[in-house]
Amino acid sequence: MLTIRTTLAAAVLPLLAACGSSSDSAATPPGPAPEVNCAPGLPALEIRGGAGAADAKTYRELPFVVGTGTGRIELSYGWTERSPLPSTPLTATTLDLGLWDEHGYRSATGFRGWSGSRQGRLDNGQAPVFVEAASAERGYRPGPIRPGTWYADLGIAAVGPGGADWVVKVECKAASGATPADDPVDRHHVARDAAGWYHGDFHMHGYHSNANAPGDEDFVAQARAAKLDFLMVTEYVTGEHWRRLGAMQRANPDLVIWPGREIITYHGHAMTHGETPGVLEYRHGFEDVTLGQIQRLAKQEDALFQVNHPTTFPGPLFANFCRGCAFELEDAIDWAQVDTIEILNGPLITELGDLGLPLPLPLGIENPFMQTAIDLWERKLAEGYRITGVSGSDSKGVDAEDERERKGYGSSATAVYATQLSRPALKSAIQAGHAYVRTRGVAHSPALVFEAQAADGQRGIFGDTLRVGEAEKVTLRATVTGGGGQTLRYFRNGRLFRSVNINADPFEHELEVQRQPGSEGPLGTFWRIETKDAQARTAIGNPVFLKAR
Facing residues of 136 across strands? Predict the structure, then answer.
């Protein structure tokens, strides 16, 4: 049962039907409008309830009515486990917090922010999150505070054994100030008007994703140290940074600042690279919201759509540790509209602490979720979906300096061959698959060149398609720089075809190949290369495709 109460003894109001999941998609729940219960001078409002196992991966929109004169809203929350046993990262309850304003909880205009489980925790002694006209907490949007029904968004991400009791506290205060003017990046900025290989990290969290994340200058400094050329600023859920990164771009004209956001659902994570102000949803499964709908709207706004870490931390063992990290929504999205997929997320070399296991010793093995992600990617290629494999650090910029090479920004990087260093050129190159992953980052991974040439003169690089007959020979040429002592491996339709020792630097190798019609899919026979040292793969190429004339 849910209750709303203030600290005044007589003030008890019933919650409306919108507090639970509903098939009604209206922005405002039915029933008479309640009286004002949040305004300057009124006591703090407390909304209490409980969550059991059946509530996991659901959302509750908790209404409160803001009165005239309010200039600041503060939100805090907390929960307690019902079980007397101590919780662990693999069993703990996790609840998320967000906010929607008087425009309603189904309107992109009404979205005011989301902080997940990292801020505003009463049980951790954290300060409340806040919004006001002039400023807002990280992850939230400043703007006018207008009277009407607002909604605290309580996401029940995971529930521990025995369930949990929770409380959401709302306080409305007076405040004044002007809303800052928007200052977005120039989407057409050209950082370098020359063709070449440019490096990016396709999963970078910043200021709005962690309470201790770096400001603009430090963010850029860390990215530069990793030798990145384009910065995919993909904050959790929010799009607030889209309004503010113009100054970062102007201060760094030799880089491309490319804002996006990570869509955190409880059934899988995805990414949009590019601003999508018309869609700020994330609540797959709430009312009629689906990730497929979010994808369609994002693509209409010209963003790239990415599937993130699809096989990372699968349930049930890791269901509470990494909520929704494993991608369970294969049937909910249109794979023909997926541009990129993370085949490496996080550090290449994994230690036990990275897995949420209560063991202190280092493990030092290749990321165990990379091969399964590659398997999914190659299955989708075989099914006929042209999806580019990329990597992302998933860093928040808070890594210790001695850990940055392993898991900081650019700890892995994706090299993209584009006609210039600009968002439009990079976007075209990424969609064409002109890319390969450098799993140890720019400084510590081999550089690859991969070319295919047919007898009739057709040529291609990573991602390209050559039209050839069944018996026609195609020459594959691989050049590896900085890979001495490693192994060059060729894969045909996802299966290892040949391994070659790299005994020179640079190392050049040619292989004559053909199509294999018996095992090829709609895209034809696809060939790709990797390099590998004694511990792990060091570079992973996107394929070239040999297709029937």
Answer: 131
Single pTM value for the model: 0.93
Residues 515, 524 contacting (CB under 8 angstroms): yes
> Would you say residue 8 lies in a domain?
yes
Q: Which of 118, 144, 173 is the last residue of a domain?
A: 173
Of 453, 461, 450, 473, the residue nearest 529 (C-alpha): 450
Q: Per residue, what are the HEC states of 271-308?
A: EEECCCCCCCCCCCCCCCCCHHHHHHHHHHCCCEEEEC
* SS3 label, residue 34: coil
Of 407, 432, 406, the closest CA to residue 418 belongs to: 432
Q: What would the pLDDT profile of 52-109 be if each residue is shown by its tens digit? A: 999 999 999 999 999 999 999 999 999 999 999 989 889 999 999 999 999 999 999 9
What the block records as the tokens of 257 is 């600042």
Do the beta carbons of residue 310 and residue 317 sit within 8 Å? Answer: no
Cβ contact 141:240 at 8 Å: yes
Structure tokens at 337: 């509209």
Which DSSP string do the residues of 467-483 spell out, in sequence order? E--TT--EEEEEEEES-
SS (H, E, C) 427-469: HHHHHHCCEEEECCHHHHCCEEEEEEEECCCCEEECCCEEECC
Can you read off the two tokens belonging to residue 78? 């907390």
* Residue 365 resides in a domain: no
Identify the helix (H) or strand (E) that includes residue 133.
Answer: none
Contact criterion met (CB below 8 Å) for 341 and 376? yes
Q: Which of 294, 322, 320 is closest to 307 using CA atoms?
A: 294
How many degrees, rounded to 5, is the angle at CA 460 between CA 459 and CA 466? Answer: 75
Q: In CATH, what number is assigned to the domain containing residue 535?
A: 2.60.40.10
Torsion of CA 516, 522, 527, 533, to 10 degrees: -120
User: How many residues are recorded in the chain?
Assistant: 549
Distance, in Å, from the CA atom of 443 to the CA atom of 521, rounded to the nearest integer, reads 36
The bridge status of strand 3-6 relative to strand 12-13 is antiparallel
Helix (DSSP H) and strand (DSSP E) numbers for the chain:
7, 33
Asked if residues 369 and 341 have their Cβ atoms less than 8 Å apart, the reply is: no
Looking at 173, 195, 217, the residue that finishes a domain is 173
CA distance 388 to 148: 45
Phi then psi dihedrals of residue 415, to 5 deg: -90, 130
User: For residue 77, what is the domain's CATH number?
Assistant: 2.60.120.380
Based on its alpha-carbon atoms, the radius of gyration of the chain, rounded to whole angstroms, reads 25
Express each pLDDT in 377-408 by its tens digit.
999 999 999 999 999 999 999 998 889 999 99
Asked if residue 258 belongs to a domain, the reply is no
The residue range of the domain holding 14 is 3-173
Determine, yes or no, domain membership for 284: no
Round to whole Å and give the CA distance between 245 and 247.
Answer: 5
* Beta carbons of 221 and 228 less than 8 angstroms apart: no
